[in-house]
Structure formats: C-alpha cells, structure tokens
Amino acid sequence: MTLLNSTESLRAMDAAHHLHPFTDASALNAKGARIITHADGVHLTDSDGNRILDGMAGLWCVAIGYGRPEIADAVARQLRQLPFYNTFFQTSHPPVIELGHLLSQVTPDHINRFFFTGSGSDANDTIFRMIAHYWAVMGQPDRTIIVSRQGAYHGSTVAASAVGGFGFMHAQPGLPVGNILHAPRPAWWAEGGELSPEDFGLKVARDTLALIDGIGAHRVAGFIAEPIMGAGGVIIPPDSYWPALSAGLTERGVMLISDEVICGFGRTGSWFGCQTYGTTPDFMTMAKGLTSGYIPMGAVGVSDRVAEVLTAKGGEFAHGYTYSGHPAACAAAIANLGILRSEGIVDRVADDIGPYLQGKWRALADHPLVGEAVMTGLIGAIQLCADKGARRAFDEDLGVGMMCREHAFANGLIMRAVGDRMVVSPPLVLTHAEADELVEKAWRVLDLTQAQLG
Ligand code: PLP
C-alpha cells in the first residue's frame, strides 16, 4: 500500500485499473476520482482530509449512518462461525431464518415470505421471473407484460434496465426490450402544465390505466413503481395519484410491485413507502436500507396470496443466486434492523427529524434559483429553474445541476444532480444540528451557482 499514499497516486492507479459504474471514463480521468477514505455518522472524509456532509447516505442506503460497530461485530462473528453456505436445494442456516422472521415483523402484515438476492437489480429480476411463474401457475400465461414508468430506475441488469425508464440506458446497445410498457410519471413541476397537482395526479393515474387497457389488462402481469421515484429525481406524487392508480390496478387484476429499494426501511417516515401511500403491493423490492449498505444484499417480499399459490402449486422455482441469503449479509441486516428498531429511527423520521428538516428544506423555495423544494420523510429535491413563476427549466446544455453539484462538493456537501433537480436522502440518524448544516450549505451552494450563472 505504500504506492497508495497520496491522492495523486490513488487517482493514477484508479484511472489505470478501475472501470466505474455510471461514469464517463475520459471525463473522470481528466480530473481524477474523488477518493473517500473514512466516514463516521453522517460525515465523509476524503483523501485530502476534507470533511463532507453526506446528504445522500452513500447511494441512498446508509440509513443508520457510518461507523456503527454493532454491524462490524455481527458480521465478524458470523464470518468466524459460518462465512458461507448456500440456501439452494433444501438447505438453510440460522441467520437467514432469523432475518426472514424479523422482516415479517416490519413489512406490511400481508408480506411474510422473502427471497434473498445480492442487490436491488437482481431482486427486481427475481420478481419479473416470479410473477410470470405465478401467472402461469394461475392458468393465465398471457399475463407477461410489465408496466413501468418513464424516468424510473429499477437497476442495471439487462431486465432491470429495460424495465426502467431511463432513455439514456435504453439508448446503449445490448438491451432486448420486450413486453414492457412505460407509463407517464407524476412529475407535476415539469409536466403538470396548467393543472393543479391533484388534478395532474389523477390524470397520470388515468393515463396509466388507459395504457394498460389499451394493451389489454389480461396481458399485464404487474405494474412496478417506487412509492416516491428516487433516482428519477425524487418525484413526490400528488396525494391523488396512488389511491386512484392502485384502485384501478386492483380492478384490473394487475399486481403492484412496490420497488422499496430507496423508500424502504424508514426513508419516507414509515417502514415502507407503500405504507406512507396506503398501497398493498404483491411484491416488494428491498435492498440498500436492508443492511444500510454495510454489506450488499437485496430481498423480494412476497404477499401471502402469491406465496401460498407458489408454495402449494409452483413446483421448483428455477432461479437463485450463489449469495441468496449470504450469512454475513444476513448478520448485517439483522444488526441493522435491530438498530432501526431499538433506536426508534423510523418513528423519529416521522415525528422529529423528518418534519424538522422538511421545514427548513421547503424554505429553500425562496431562493431565486429554486422552482420547488419538496421533501417527504428524509427524501427531498429542489428544482433549479430559469423562471420560477413560469416553471421554465434551464437550457439543458448549461448543465446547471452539475454546476451546483460541484459547488456542493467543494463546500462540504454531497447532493446529487438529476438534470437540474438537486436531490438529498441523508442518513436517517441526522441530528438537528446536522440538518441545519445541510440546509445552510445548500443555501450557500445555490448562491454560488447563481453567481456563476451571472
Ligand atoms: N430499484 C431502485 C428504486 C433503485 O434506486 C436501485 C438502485 O439505486 C435499484 C433498484 C437497483 O439496486 P442495486 O443498485 O442494489 O442493484
């Protein structure tokens, strides 16, 4: 490691050997990667010793904050006792058994069975296979279409990127896109026109159901959506959207897949985002907050009515991952759930730090650059815009979001830019003082961005 004792040498070696996800390598190598070396609580430290408030909880995942020894100890204990065994072919082990039991206590009452995966992407792939299997067992093999939404992110495997609604991912070769439809998203600021948010929410729900009716509801296996669209820009739906849409899906026999990879484990102020919006999904995708990102892990939650059919009549489900129910990942998840529960972290998001940060965050709407400032639980966005009154966006080529993101980083704050929408999703253990720090830094960063725009 003596070679790696300076930021420069780390950057050079990173550029030589590491292909990064979602990164333009030539742009990265021109500048060099940001190198994060330590973290504690809600703060990161980079290789130059700068301390940065992590407004994104890593990648929306470090719910309990960094540096919790309980997780490290639980994983170390498990690695000593049973570092690996698989869960294929009628075998199991205590940590995976305990984790399933604990999850059934925190998920909605009708979700009691879990299939374990290595990530959110392969959890979604698992659902696409399981739902098709379910409909075949039910004697409706024509129900194969998955309806998703434009601008949604559901992962990076071939199936998950096809189901997701990012045009730039579809544009890259190698993606067979079949049996997938993309419905509109309830993005009022950008697409609501003259309608009120509530009327727009109803319109998007109606348009989604019309899309399903157009292809024939009897051909649709499921509708996948996040309760709040996260990586697509933290699109918080109008209150009218979910009740109208979920009632229409139920009428048509279309199953709801709630992708809880970001919204799960307290992010929206309930254990799961579907509870915040009152929907009853048949499948739930989980990852990120399941282990707070300390060890990779995903899971699929399956409703009783689906699980009962599959366990009674489904035969062998020919699907699985070497690391399905990895003992060390289970140990991390168990310890993480223990912290979330014993410290009342989900209630704290609902009743204390959530409302506290929301109040301060929404006040950012007074900044001349900000068109809207929204937040539910501890997930929020500010929309940068050229004209607030007219809801007019900046010219995309200006790259205002990226400009703002760079100012944020240089000023000790991680915010993510989705186009010109700045999003945050801090660790759920954020203190009031850290919430103040986050918003003060965001103001400063907005001022700097405005000054740069001239
Ligand atoms: N689903 C959603 C909603 C996500 O935000 C993500 C990742 O950001 C995924 C699925 C994919 O999860 P992973 O990166 O663990 O494969």
UniProtKB/TrEMBL annotation:
It comes from the Bacteria. GO terms for biological process: biotin biosynthetic process; gamma-aminobutyric acid metabolic process. Its cofactor is pyridoxal 5'-phosphate. Keywords: Aminotransferase, Pyridoxal phosphate, Transferase. CDD domains: OAT_like (cd00610). The keyword Transferase applies. GO terms for molecular function: adenosylmethionine-8-amino-7-oxononanoate transaminase activity; pyridoxal phosphate binding. Belongs to the class-III pyridoxal-phosphate-dependent aminotransferase family. PANTHER family: ADENOSYLMETHIONINE-8-AMINO-7-OXONONANOATE AMINOTRANSFERASE (PTHR42684:SF3). This is Aspartate aminotransferase family protein. It comes from Paracoccus gahaiensis.
